[in-house]
């Protein structure tokens, strides 16, 4: 079995809008733990810390 990649959410956006313009909030919060795709995201290093930026569009 492959090892899963998990990470802590450090920031989330406000969400997206539906066809009528109504805001659909993000179902994640800062501090949540999420599973990451094996290949995906952009690795970024800031102030000696490593981050992975993942944009999820639905």
Automatic annotation (TrEMBL):
<dbReference type="GO" id="GO:0046872">
    <property type="term" value="F:metal ion binding"/>
</dbReference>
<dbReference type="InterPro" id="IPR020818">
    <property type="entry name" value="Chaperonin_GroES"/>
</dbReference>
<dbReference type="GO" id="GO:0051082">
    <property type="term" value="F:unfolded protein binding"/>
</dbReference>
<keyword id="KW-0143">Chaperone</keyword>
<dbReference type="GO" id="GO:0005524">
    <property type="term" value="F:ATP binding"/>
</dbReference>
<dbReference type="Pfam" id="PF00166">
    <property type="entry name" value="Cpn10"/>
</dbReference>
<dbReference type="GO" id="GO:0051087">
    <property type="term" value="F:protein-folding chaperone binding"/>
</dbReference>
<comment type="similarity">
    <text>Belongs to the GroES chaperonin family.</text>
</comment>
<dbReference type="GO" id="GO:0005739">
    <property type="term" value="C:mitochondrion"/>
</dbReference>
<dbReference type="InterPro" id="IPR037124">
    <property type="entry name" value="Chaperonin_GroES_sf"/>
</dbReference>
<dbReference type="GO" id="GO:0044183">
    <property type="term" value="F:protein folding chaperone"/>
</dbReference>
<protein>
    <submittedName>
        <fullName>Uncharacterized protein</fullName>
    </submittedName>
</protein>
<dbReference type="InterPro" id="IPR011032">
    <property type="entry name" value="GroES-like_sf"/>
</dbReference>
């Amino acid at each position: 079995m492959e090892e899963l990649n998990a990470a802590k959410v450090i920031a989330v956006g406000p969400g997206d809008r539906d066809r009528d313009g109504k805001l659909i909030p993000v179902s994640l919060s800062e501090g949540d733990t999420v599973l990451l795709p094996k290949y995906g995201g952009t690795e970024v290093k800031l102030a000696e810390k490593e981050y992975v930026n993942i944009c999820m569009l639905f």
